[in-house]
Amino acid sequence: MKNAATSRVLIVGAGSVGLIVGYHLSLAKADVTFLVRPGRVERLSRPQTLYCYDDNSLKHYEGYSVISDHADIAEGRFDYILITLDGASLQNEDGVALTKAIGKAVEGTETKVIQGSMFVDSRRWFQSVSGLRDDQFTTGYFSFLSYPPSAVTLPLHGPTDPELLAKADQAYYDNQAAMMLDDSGPAVAEGFAELYNASGVSKVAIVPAAGIAILANAIFAMFAGCDLLGWPKFSDIDPTDETWRLAIAAMKEIQTLSMHGEAGRQAAEATTEASVLEENVAMEKQMLPLDLQEFNRFHHGGKVNKQDRALLTASLAAGRAEGKEMPALTELLRHYSSEIP
């Protein structure tokens, strides 16, 4: 890997996730370029202002480049390509064209790709469409929370400064836990983690691929339950509530899909209505002053809701293909989505 001072990274998407990752990479002295739709180029022509909940301060991000044409992903130009689109966007017609363009551009090069879009069986899908080698890419999960304050007003908790927050293009909570990369492409994961961690303020964790898949696929049943309950604080949810119990039962059904193997079976055995609540109540406290459940209402109740529903529908289809009835997930989706296969 080139040293951090000369590493070149293309970030696909300059939304809430892409900009925060780009900012941290800039602190690691990486040369960052964003690939965006033509209509978003002008917005990035000025420095971006970021509000950090971790230290209640504004960060100013500039010095990046912007491109808007797939053809500009020139052979060998980038050391890493990081995809930050949501799962629904990557799998639509434009996303498929983008994936093919990335595969063609980096064929025969040493460019490494990190696929951060979440959907069932994403690694197999991405490799099939892009044609990338096994050792040329890996998948990831963004674990920090970020959003544009202009799009939603979250409840304020001290010491959040509302005047600073109002000046920000994006706001985020990181607490040194930006993203997880799976170990299916070890050289890719290790190289990018070394680069990103040089920021000194945020870190990447490398975890077993099965662990990310179980988390990424099953957690959306919980979000569906929260949506049906009206997004109450986790501390206000009754673990014996019928909707909550249905959501957790659906989580367990997803965890036991064959794609998750023995790790999924063990996860399902450890998953209970009380344990999931306990974990999220602790997270709710940890992430203050950012309001976790109101963020979830904005993000999973709206912004990426299409992705979430598609992922649950795909999980149901996968279970039925294995001959499983998936009664809890079927019932959850009857309340949550009209798109049941």
From TrEMBL:
Residues 9-85 form the Ketopantoate reductase N-terminal domain. InterPro entries: KPR_N. Pfam families: ApbA (PF02558). This is 2-dehydropantoate 2-reductase N-terminal domain-containing protein.
